[in-house]
Design a protein that fits this description.
CATH topology of the largest domain: Rossmann fold
Largest sheet: 8 strands, mixed
Number of helices: 14
CATH class of the largest domain: Alpha Beta
CATH superfamily of the largest domain: NAD(P)-binding Rossmann-like Domain
Helix content: 40-55%
Number of domains: 2
Order of helices and strands: HEHEHEHEHEHEHHEEEEEEHHEHHHH
Shape: globular
Distance between the termini: 17 Å
Strand content: 15-25%
Number of strands: 13
CATH architecture of the largest domain: 3-Layer(aba) Sandwich
Strand order of the largest sheet: 12-11-10-6-9-8-7-13
Radius of gyration: 21 Å
Length: about 375
């Protein structure tokens, strides 16, 4: 993904690559040479290299375990961050990063690249014409042989992949997770050590259900990497195979009834990680707080942790319980007093992540980043 981001930054007219950081500087130099950029500075510390080069932001493409320390250091150095999913390795670490973003007033955006897909945006618009949603489903069946760490994980499908459809479900439904019941297992022919298949049913706000079924060891007749989607609503059904234009069948909308959701904002920014980069740059130029801003992104990772907890315990899990446990863990383990104080000030995690908080952060970002107009990573 580091090489993919090198290409995305290189293709973005409004961005300039200031440097590349890797614990193995030779790996950084090789990637730059392969990209035709052999003269770009390299280093082993993002903050140090940013100061040396005058960089104004960081794109964090480290492994998940490094997201928390790298992002925290960047935010407190005055550097906004665009990071790969997940925001951090755990919800507790992600809450720490939420508090760090609040304390510093810096933007931390998580690149949920599926949200920058024009077909998905069209599917969301179609869904908005169906009246009240009832059931959203995703089927995901692939058979990748990655090798390496994924094949040794306890829950490779849920932890490494499911955050994409879980985040997409929130986006499509304009709803948040309430609870989940999940079962995970490993088919007998699986080449994974952990559970490579899972089924989960989420209750979302408003009573709508989201059902996910997937497998990473299901050869032949594979679905799209985006999954296959179906939304059953009050006035019809919309479906999307993940690779082509979505389809909808519906009754005429009742007179005077407006479409739920309508056109999703910010859909002209580009596709995939390029779209996320463009939205990030626009925010640094004083534009709107982008989709994937860390407050908005937490509940996608919370859905993953809740699903794993349910699969492990065999019981239905409340997402609020996951959030409150994560909050307690974040308070107990936070090393920075200012971040711990901000965490302690929250009356509830949901309140801290809510719409009112997002509006307030947008005002802060407009003030803190106003001087950064025209600045680029």
């Amino acid at each position: 993904m580091g090489r993919a981001w090198l290409a995305a930054v290189g293709a973005e007219a409004g961005a300039e690559l200031a440097g590349v950081v890797d614990l193995d500087v030779d790996a950084a130099r090789r990637a730059l040479a392969d990209a035709g950029l052999p003269g770009v500075p390299v280093g082993t510390d993002a903050v140090d290299l940013a100061r040396a080069t005058g960089a104004r932001a960081v794109v964090d493409v480290t492994v998940p375990a490094a997201h928390h320390p790298v992002t925290t250091a960047a935010l407190f150095a005055g550097l906004p961050v665009l990071g790969e999913k997940p925001a951090a390795a755990t919800v507790a670490e992600t809450l720490s990063l939420v508090a760090a973003a609040e304390v510093t007033g810096q933007l931390f955006m998580v690149s949920q690249s599926r949200r920058y897909n024009p077909q998905l945006a069209a599917f969301r618009r179609q869904a908005g014409t169906l009246g009240r949603p009832g059931l959203l489903t995703t089927e995901f069946f692939r058979a990748p042989r990655f090798g390496g760490f994924r094949e040794e994980m306890a829950h490779p499908l849920l932890v490494d992949m499911a955050i994409h459809p879980f985040d997409t479900a929130r986006y499509l439904l304009d709803a948040e997770p309430v609870s989940v019941y999940c079962e995970s297992f490993n088919p007998p022919w699986s080449w994974y050590s952990g559970d490579a298949a899972a089924s989960a049913v989420f209750e979302m706000t408003g009573g709508v259900r989201y059902a996910y079924t997937g497998s990473w060891c299901s050869p032949w007749r594979e679905t799209s990497w985006n999954g296959a989607w179906r939304l059953s609503g009050e006035h019809g059904t919309a479906s999307w195979d993940g690779d082509h234009d979505p389809e909808v069948e519906r009754a005429p909308a009742p007179a005077g009834e407006e479409a739920r959701g309508g056109a999703a904002g910010g859909e002209s920014t580009g596709e995939g990680i390029a779209g996320a980069l463009t939205a990030f740059l626009a925010a640094l130029d004083g534009g709107p707080v982008p989709r994937g801003e860390v407050h908005e992104n937490v509940l996608s990772l919370a859905m993953v942790e809740a699903a794993v907890a349910s699969a492990t315990s065999g019981e239905r899990v409340l997402v609020d319980d996951v959030l409150e446990r994560a909050h307690a863990e974040a308070l107990a383990t936070e090393a920075r007093e200012d971040v711990r104080a901000r965490l302690a000030s929250w009356t509830s995690v949901r309140a801290a992540l809510g719409t009112e908080r997002g509006t307030e952060l947008g005002t802060e970002l407009g003030t803190e980043l106003g001087a950064a107009r025209g600045a680029r990573p």
